[in-house]
Amino acid sequence: MRRYTSVGLSPLVAVILLIAITVAAAVVVSGVFFNLASIAGRRPTAIIDQVKLIATPAGAGTWTVVVKNTGDVPITTIVASYPVATCNPGLTFTPLPLNPGATASAQASTASGCSLGTTYRIILTITFQDGSTQTLATQVTAAIA
Questions:
Q1: Which pLDDT tens digit goes with each residue over 104-145?
Q2: Regarding beta strands 61-69 and 46-55, do their DSSP bridges make them parallel or antiparallel, or are they unpaired?
Q3: Which of 114, 68, 70 is nearest to 93 (CA)?
Q4: How far is Cα 103 from Cα 22, in angstroms, rounded to an integer?
Q5: Residue 31's pLDDT band (boundaries 50, 70, 90)?
């Protein structure tokens, strides 16, 4: 009797090839997934790190405001507004654009309208590079230096 030999791959080589193909496919799929997840997970957020209002008995005041970018998207503009306030200088924040993790600050003075012990409200409208906006509001009491 004559025995016929198989011309295909041995079972051991076939198993090793299947494992290698499975690992390579898993690496490709996980790379695509984590890349898409990082794009979808971008979040534009910021916080007001510090607000100070130093006033004089004569009514002059100096505002200092610090904003921190706590998100993943750069900040392009920060606009300050003061609802129903007489103590409202024009604040210009620098540096802008503000990269994630960095802080921007603004300091401005007004010659009158700030009363010691009075609490003033400030609203910051923050625009991010992706076009989204965030509104932050806080208040500060005018104190003497």
A1: 999 999 999 999 999 999 999 999 999 999 999 999 999 997
A2: antiparallel
A3: 68
A4: 46
A5: confident
Instruction: Show the tokens assigned to 121.
Output: 């409200």
- Which amino acid, residue 22? T
Alpha carbon distance 17, 24 (integer Å): 11
- Residue 140's nearest CA partner among 99, 97, 75, 80 is 80
CA angle centred on 44, ends 83 and 108, rounded to 5°:
40
DSSP structure string for 116-138? TT-EEEEEEEEEETTS-EEEEEE
Quick one: tokens of 21?
């193909």
Alpha-carbon distances, residue 71 vs 34, 38, 64, 103, 136 (angstroms): 18, 13, 22, 12, 14
CA 39 to chain centre: 14
β-bridge mates for residue 60, sequence order = none
| Pairing state between β 119-128 and 133-141 | antiparallel
Contact between 142 and 116 (Cβ < 8 Å): yes
